[in-house]
Write a structure and sequence with these properties.
Oligomer: single chain
Distance between the termini: 33 Å
Shape: globular
Strand content: 15-25%
Number of strands: 23
CATH architecture of the largest domain: 3-Layer(bba) Sandwich
CATH superfamily of the largest domain: FAD/NAD(P)-binding domain
Number of domains: 2
Mean pLDDT: 96
Bound molecules: flavin-adenine dinucleotide
Radius of gyration: 23 Å
Structural class: alpha/beta
Low-confidence stretches: none
Amino acid sequence: MVEKTEVLVVGGGQAGIAMSEHLGAAGVDHIVLERGRIAESWRTRRWDSLVANGPAWHDRFPGLEFSCDPEGFATKDEVAGYMEAYASQIDAPVRCGVDVTGVTRLEGRPGFRAETSAGVIEADYVVAATGPYHNPLMPKLVPDRPGLTQMHSIDYRNPDQLAEGAVLVVGAGSSGVQIAAELNRAGRKVYLSVGPHGRPPRAYRGRDYCWWLGVLNDWDAEATPGAEHVTIAVSGAEGGHTVDFRALAADGVTLVGRTEACTDGVLRFAPDLPGNIAQGDRNYLAVLDRADAYVARMGLDLPEEPGARDIAPDPACVTDPLLSLDLEEAGISTILWATGFALDYGWLQLDAVDAQGRPAHLRGVSDEPGVYFLGLPWQTRRASSFIYGVWHDARYITDHILKRRAYLAYPGVPA
Ligand SMILES: Cc1cc2nc3c(=O)[nH]c(=O)nc-3n(C[C@H](O)[C@H](O)[C@H](O)COP(=O)(O)OP(=O)(O)OC[C@H]3O[C@@H](n4cnc5c(N)ncnc54)[C@H](O)[C@@H]3O)c2cc1C
């Protein structure tokens, strides 16, 4: 028995649910297949205390508000619950516990054949909504040694999970800084390896950064071709606050530069810490400058906040950074790599993926006609991999499917 549908959506996270909403509204027959549960990543691939990086009024879909305080930051379980409620509100045809293991072209006719753990499905269109973060990236810089555990942030849950001893957290994006702060609060000695980053204000002149991103058109910023992605350190933890590396240092965290190598149990760090901190400050102050210019231009009555420009002096660990660290002498029992993820589209055996396994696409429309991506970082713009942005990209992909459908039906084309 081969089941048929017009659109097969693979993945039942926020991207798959958003896709289902738009397809459903357009009356397009579709199925969403999810190997785990709805929003599985929010349930099992995040640490226990994680809350959303954006306030609840913002990090949501248009059709439903969070039940928590709109100015607050939803917990990871509240986000998962929200997605589940949304799926049921729109009556999304999600089938959980179904793994898509392969998608190939149908021979001699349009469409695709999906092999799944629950049988074969044929579809005219396939949307890969399997998320922006697949396989954890852990640079092979530190050889394994007795007494040292190396783990990726995806496997971190809480401080009690780690063996006693000091921790080196590598990576100072949103995950790394939040995990380092949590471990430090739990009484661990923490070293935080800080690379290039942006650290926008959590809020300025009474408005959250998510609002500023909206009015300054930055959610819609496109990726600069060839430019290296610079991680952003933001946090909704403890009610939300601006990430401040100097405050972390004052609380006892030792900041170090980029982790470069490890020989004979001695870690080596790049001498780039002062430069990375200074660059992060410039990024922070540039947001304030643009926000002030916007307030003046629009004549807005938002309270001035001169104190936001006060930046404390650099702590000793920044002015005279450690360039090496003996793992044993420092008592480091865990290295926690908060170093990002690689994509894995092994199940998509089509021209939608290039020779290096990367999605071959323009704004989510892949090189394989009829196959789409959704939820990729910077797929169309900065917002693409976030709850707010994926909803808009899903609308774009749905429109594209409707246009393509009209061309395939030919005579009067415009749909
Ligand atoms: C630590 C962390 C914090 C974040 N915080 C925020 C935040 O506060 N606000 C925000 O907007 N964004 C945040 N993001 C970014 C983004 O919102 C999340 O990564 C989100 O989970 C992405 O949703 P998605 O639907 O694209 O992918 P996912 O949530 O990963 O969903 C993809 C789904 O596809 C399923 N799947 C994968 N392969 C298959 C297959 N072959 N067959 C069937 N099913 C499959 C998976 O089980 C998964 O459920 C955060 C990301 C991380 C890592």
